[in-house]
Amino acid sequence: MQVLAMSIGQHTADEFNQTTPLEWVGALTCIACVYLAAIQNIWNWPIAIISVIAYTIVFYKSMLYGDAGLQVYFLGTSIYGWYFWIKKKERHEKPVTSLSTKEYLLVFIATAVLSLLLGLFLKHFTPTNVPYIDGFCTAVSFIAQILMTRKVLQNWALWIFVDICYVPLYIYKNLYVTAILYIVLLVLAWLGHVDWQKEYRKSAA
Q1: Following DSSP, what letter does each residue of 63-123 receive, concatenated?
Q2: Model confidence, pTM
Q3: Domains of the chain by residue range
Q4: Which residues lie across from 152 on neighbouring strands?
Q5: Cα dihedral angle (102, 103, 104, 106), rounded to 10 degrees?
Q6: pLDDT by residue (tens digit) across 142-179?
Q7: Which of 6, 31, 74, 75 has the fewest beta carbons closer than 10 A?
């Protein structure tokens, strides 16, 4: 047992040593932007742009094509989110909203359909060996990002769920720093949910 533990520890250490500077940049800026989003700081968006550019390259090289494509989408939504949050501030509108019952159903259906379509696309048109889990995580992240740009409370619940799914996927792909990053993001997403929920209740009252 001790030999096995030492072997696992040595393997993990070797993987950390092989982590590229680009993955470190992506991980650290990602933590920063999620923390800033949790406290509703508008600077989360420009920092997110740095993170998504770095991770586009990292994921593409790891054959996580769904995640690589997702980063391109994140780039666009980060620019949009930055603009939308500025406009929200200027207009003094209610900063946090919540989904209606109908919108919950639409989110569920959209996520399921998008997961299936992305999984099929990745299976038939890319050499990835994890098409459906990659497609599923990409779909959930896609929807969560839309909700975040619109300051919808439930974006954090989706991020919490997908962060849990991503951790074993990145370990499987030997992206250990990114796996640890997503554990940190899981905690930050929970804190973001708590903070946004307080503000939503305050504004609703």
Answers
A1: T-HHHHHHHHHHHHHHHHHHHHHHHHHHHT--S-B---HHHHHHHHHHHHHHHHHHHHHHH
A2: 0.78
A3: 2-204
A4: 97
A5: 90
A6: 999 899 888 899 999 999 999 999 999 999 988 888 89
A7: 6
